[in-house]
Amino acid sequence: MVKIGNIQLPAFPLLLAPMEDVSDPPFRAVCKDNGADLMYTEFISSEGLIRDAIKSRQKLDIFDYERPVGIQIFGGDEESLSLAAKIVEVTNPDLLDINFGCPVKKVALKGAGAGVLKDLDLMQRLTSAVVKSTSLPVTVKTRLGWDDNTKNIEEVAERLQDVGIKALAIHGRTRTQMYKGEADWTLIGKVKNNPRITIPIFGNGDIDSPEKALEYKNRYGVDGIMIGRAAIGYPWIFNEIKHFVQTGEHLVPPTIEDRVAVCRKHLYKSVEWKGPVVGINEMRRHYANYLKGLPNIKEYRNKLVTLKLVEEIDEVLDEVIAIYTGFEFEKNNIELINYHEKCPID
User: CA–CA separation, 340 vs 285, rounded Å?
Assistant: First the structure.
């Protein structure tokens, strides 16, 4: 078992990464159905919460079926983060996570997200302020460092543990790498194997198959893995990894019926939570990923991103099932399409 404060997780838990414009309640619902052990909200601006910004407040929505679930906040000011932590606590999540990983300019260059990696004293003060402001377990998501010359994650881990965080998730890239190149897990392994570190360490970056998950588990000794992009349009990744880790065998991949069923649930949840107009519009970014790998799917995908009624979308999805039933996906050749450029994966 892995413990984060008083939260009990299974041995080697799989976490859904907090992804802006992705990790909303409808997406989290289908990931939970398919084996995610711990999930997080999209990151929420501490300043936005304090100003009572509608979009920030909406991101606080969590549901009992998601638990355990954490709310993630970001900011570069001690007072704002402290106040935001108090606001978050009222919504009763299982934990509170601080984002020190988002690399995009509008966040990092304003001294928040990965920008805090340039000032470890500030990072320690910000984290301490949050820990002191809430009774919730506080965790942190961050990167290896700002750039290749400042890969200071080993020092970061010790300092953040010293001020009271209960777990640390590390994305194996620097801020300057953004999402390019391969994630380097070497330093994640060093953090985990540091005898001073007693909190759970979760690795993040480039885990897109059961084989890689097991390989990295064994090679780096992490307590669990956080999965981001590989779950977009393919939430089955969680149960597939669990089964492979336990048995060394692959689960039967989802059929087209399975894919459409999960896509439908995602759509219905989206409409239920956001309303019909926003729910349908924002669901459009997901169809390509759910249907990726189907030959000549473009015609149906183009229909799905233009329709405005759930009933019409259902009809097209029924057509897709009728035409592609029995089609076997060449799973290793499926590349996920990612339209999210704001801060998709920390």
Answer: 9
Active site residue 102: yes
Q: How many domains does the chain have?
A: 2
Last residue of a domain, one of 247, 275, 300: 247
In terms of Cα–Cα distance, which of 306, 263, 313 is closest to 287? 263
Answer whether residue 279 is part of any domain.
yes
SS3 percent helix, strand, coil of the chain, rounded to 5, is 45, 15, 40
User: Which of 247, 278, 303 represents a domain boundary (last residue)?
Assistant: 247
Mark whether 222 and 168 lie in a shared domain. yes
Domain range for 271: 256-328
Return d(Cα 3, Cα 249) in angstroms, integer.
27
Q: Around Cβ 326, how many Cβ atoms within 10 Å? A: 7
Domain presence at residue 43 = yes
Give the whole-angstrom CA distance, residue 11 versus residue 149: 35
Q: SS3 for 137?
A: coil
CA distance 36 to 15: 6
Give tens-digit pLDDT for 140-191: 999 998 888 889 999 999 999 999 999 999 999 988 777 778 889 999 999 9
Provide φ and ψ at 119, rounded to 5°: -140, 90
Higher per-residue pLDDT: 25 or 175: 25
Task: Say what the pTM is.
Answer: 0.90
User: What's the pLDDT tens digit per position in 205-236?
Assistant: 999 999 999 999 999 999 999 999 999 999 99
Burial (CB count <10 Å: 0-12, 13-18, 19+), residue 57: middle
Pair 321, 256: CB distance under 8 Å: yes
Per DSSP, helices labelled H in the chain are 25-33, 46-50, 54-58, 78-90, 105-108, 120-133, 153-162, 186-192, 210-220, 237-247, 256-274, 276-290, 298-304, 310-324
31, 102, 263, 343: which is the annotated catalytic residue? 102
